[in-house]
């Protein structure tokens, strides 16, 4: 292994199961968050026709393959071998790859799949957030564009000036089903989302 290859070796691998997100840090100091859907549709050796309908796919198992690759087994039955360099490249080019993929889907008349059904969640507000909302809880239907914590907060901030300030990402601690959430944590039908002001 040469010096360049030594830098493209994971130092940390963490699967966020709820969020369907694989987090990998590399020895070169880079770190990436890979949605499971992204890893699935960009699997090594994928056909020319875009893989589609994988919006809700998740990882069922992760296993190292020697010292050079990772075997990813998805819950749709597919498994593939991803070398460290391939994973690093997918991370570096993620934004460009994803934009190209969405364009391919549109050109071929294909859909990302399940995920367009209605999502109803329960929101719990605490302290001054309850005062701003005028209630301590409410049940809402999310628009199709909102599928994670970051998107939820952005959607709530559109309710007005008071909401825009109080629901800024750095001012609110969010839990989903009583588990601390990250910006990328997925929100699904039936979830309970609690919003608590961060202590200064």
For this structure, the CATH topology of the largest domain is: NE0471 N-terminal domain-like
Element order: H for helix, E for strand: HEEEHEEEHHEHEHHEEE
What does the average pLDDT come to?
91
Number of strands: 11
The percentage helix is 25-40%
What is the top-level CATH class of the largest domain?
Alpha Beta
**What general outline do the C-alpha atoms trace?**
globular
List segments where confidence is low: pLDDT < 50 over at least 5 consecutive residues. none
Class by SSE composition: alpha+beta
Radius of gyration: 19 Å
How many helices does DSSP assign?
7
Give the N-to-C terminal Cα separation. 48 Å
Spatial strand order of the main sheet: 8-7-11-9-10
Oligomer category:
single chain
Would you kindly provide a written description of the structure presented here, covering whatever features stand out?
This protein has 200 residues and is α+β, with helices and mostly antiparallel strands. The chain contains seven helices and eleven strands. A five-stranded mixed beta sheet has the order 8-7-11-9-10. It has a three-stranded antiparallel beta sheet with strand order 1-2-3. The longest helix is centred in the middle third of the chain and has 15 residues, at 94-108. The protein has helices at 3-7, 36-41, 84-92, 94-108, 128-133, 149-157, 161-166; strands at residues 10-16, 21-26, 31-35, 59-65, 69-74, 79-83, 119-125, 137-142, 172-176, 179-180, 192-197. It has two domains: 3-108, NE0471 N-terminal domain-like, CATH 3.30.2020; 119-197, Ubiquitin-like (UB roll), CATH 3.10.20.
């Amino acid at each position: 292994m040469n010096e360049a290859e030594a830098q493209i070796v994971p130092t940390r691998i963490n699967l966020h199961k709820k969020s369907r997100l694989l987090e990998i840090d590399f020895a070169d100091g880079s770190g990436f968050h890979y949605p499971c859907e992204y890893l699935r549709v960009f699997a090594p050796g994928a056909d020319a026709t875009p893989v589609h309908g994988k919006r809700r796919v998740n990882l069922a198992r992760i296993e190292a393959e020697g010292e050079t690759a990772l075997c990813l087994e998805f819950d749709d039955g597919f498994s593939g071998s991803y070398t460290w360099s391939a994973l690093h490249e997918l991370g570096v080019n993620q934004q460009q790859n994803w934009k190209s993929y969405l364009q391919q889907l549109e050109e071929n008349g294909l859909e990302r799949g399940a995920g367009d059904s209605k999502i109803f969640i329960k929101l719990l507000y605490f302290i001054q957030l309850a005062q701003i909302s005028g209630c301590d809880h409410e049940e809402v239907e999310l628009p199709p564009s909102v599928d994670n914590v970051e998107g939820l907060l952005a959607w709530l901030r559109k309710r007005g000036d008071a909401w825009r300030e109080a629901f800024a990402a750095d001012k609110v601690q969010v839990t989903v089903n009583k588990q601390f959430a990250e910006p990328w944590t997925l929100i699904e039908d039936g979830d309970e989302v609690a919003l608590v002001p961060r202590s200064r």
